[in-house]
Amino acid sequence: MDTKWWRAHLAPSVPSSMPNHPSKTSGSRSESVYSGLRRAIIEQALMPGDKLTEDVIGERFGVSRTIVRAALAKLNAEGLVDLQPNKGATIAQPSLSEAHDVFEARMCLERQVLARLAERITDRDLAMLEQHVALEAKAGAHDGPAAIRLAGEFHILLAELSGNGVLARYVDEVVSRCSLILALYSRPHSSDCSINEHQQIVDALRARDADRATKAMDHHLQAVTERALLSSNSDKHRDIRSILDRYAG
Amino acid sequence: MDTKWWRAHLAPSVPSSMPNHPSKTSGSRSESVYSGLRRAIIEQALMPGDKLTEDVIGERFGVSRTIVRAALAKLNAEGLVDLQPNKGATIAQPSLSEAHDVFEARMCLERQVLARLAERITDRDLAMLEQHVALEAKAGAHDGPAAIRLAGEFHILLAELSGNGVLARYVDEVVSRCSLILALYSRPHSSDCSINEHQQIVDALRARDADRATKAMDHHLQAVTERALLSSNSDKHRDIRSILDRYAG
DNA sequence: GCATCCATCATTGTATACAATAGGCTCGAT
DNA sequence: ATCGAGCCTATTGTATACAATGATGGATGC
């Protein structure tokens, strides 16, 4: 709890590589905290229910609470973080009902994405998708947290290639929230099956077969949804610090 | 430019009536600024391109820049406000391409809403819708800025009645952004036609006719979309202060 | 032993100070 | 008059101080 910690941490400049979304809260600092936390959540390093104390996060990322606060607000807007007045932030714990809503919205959005893609997809796009699936396969082998993230990013990539930025943003959001839902309700699944299903979607798109692609997607999401089971972690006081260090880069 | 203005303004407590979304940035203060600005934007009192200076807003709402900043960040996340680093916030000016994306997403989402509603709508829900349409008709008569807002709120109400919170949030967002788009690209339309079309949608829902409802909605949105024309307001330096006062309550 | 109350502490909410940046403006030179 | 260099001011970015709120734990009474 020593004060004046940052002076030491502050690198002279942090030129964050690539602003993921067009929307930015402000400078690159809160963005960096935001994306760090986001990644930690999506890779399930931070688990639903974990307390996100502003001071702790600020300490680990080398910024003041002001910045952390902005990042948390953004994560809250996305539904990844619960923010209770005067009690602070925790990783969101979607109820089963919310989970259902998210999946339904996701289905609806991704159908539209595929409909667009089946019409306008280019060979270059297909190449990118193939490459991504390959990446998934490789990461999936040694089942790192990266595999979880990559599985989601496949869908985000699809949405981005659709060319509709609004759709892309929403898909990004629902996919992220699905990570949370799986963390809460699913057994530690091997995502091998996912990869296979992703490949099928790409194949259908290559054939410009909107119908088959949609079917494949429906089946895929159905499979993911049905992994919703029991489970509930409740370590009252997990120490986040060491985890945050891994994501503060 | 006198400092220490707020002491005078600060009411002892501001028990904001109803938190629109479950997501809250923090306390009720930023919420109040947020919703005030939002309403001003949606009612087209604030126009695309208008500069939103933190100090000015803070002064009018009787809060510090900290609070204003949180509100602006949230509006930015919703796509209603552009936030450029070191240059501040302006009301968003969606490009035609963005406008198209928004409308496409909106169509997709609202179809899903209608599909759900056609199955599960109750008589009580229908009554609420009827009541709302009546309200629209009344407000539309003397064409206040409220009419614009109410037209949008019809769609938001539909989404909320659908029972899917995620869907509702997204519909809320795209509908709001449509206000901006209309402000930019449409002639000052009388929304009488809208009301009529809204009534048709309600009628279709009463008959539990998903198909007819969807058709009506498609037609309705089509009509709205096609009002996209020319126009561009560019008062370089509009004075926002008097407008803000009307929304600071 | 168990519940209750109060003191203490940890944490959040908010205003504000200070630094950095951007844009405008004056002034002089061409 | 037009252009550019350099100050000047308005505004944003960020850390921090202080207040308020909620949790925690220990002493007290039953």
List the helices and strands and how they pair.
2 copies of one chain form a homodimer.
Chain A: H1 6-9, H2 28-42, E1 51-52, H3 54-61, H4 65-77, E2 81-84, E3 88-91, H5 96-120, H6 123-141, H7 145-161, H8 165-185, H9 192-206, H10 210-225, H11 241-247
Antiparallel strand pairs in A: 1-3, 2-3
Helix pairs in contact in A: 2-4, 3-4, 5-7, 5-8, 5-10, 6-7, 6-9, 7-8, 9-10
Chain A binds a DNA duplex (30 and 30 nucleotides) through helix 4.
Helix content percent band of chain A: 55-70%
Number of domains of chain A: 2
CATH fold naming of the largest domain in chain A: Four Helix Bundle (Hemerythrin (Met), subunit A)
Derived from helix and strand composition plus strand pairing, the structural class of chain A reads: mainly alpha
Q: CATH architecture of the largest domain in chain A, please?
A: Up-down Bundle
Mean pLDDT of chain A: 83
- What is the CATH class name of the largest domain in chain A? Mainly Alpha
Quick one: CATH superfamily of the largest domain in chain A?
GntR ligand-binding domain-like
Our count of helices of chain A gives: 11
Looking at the chains present, what oligomeric state does this protein adopt? homodimer
Our estimate of the beta-strand percent of chain A is under 5%
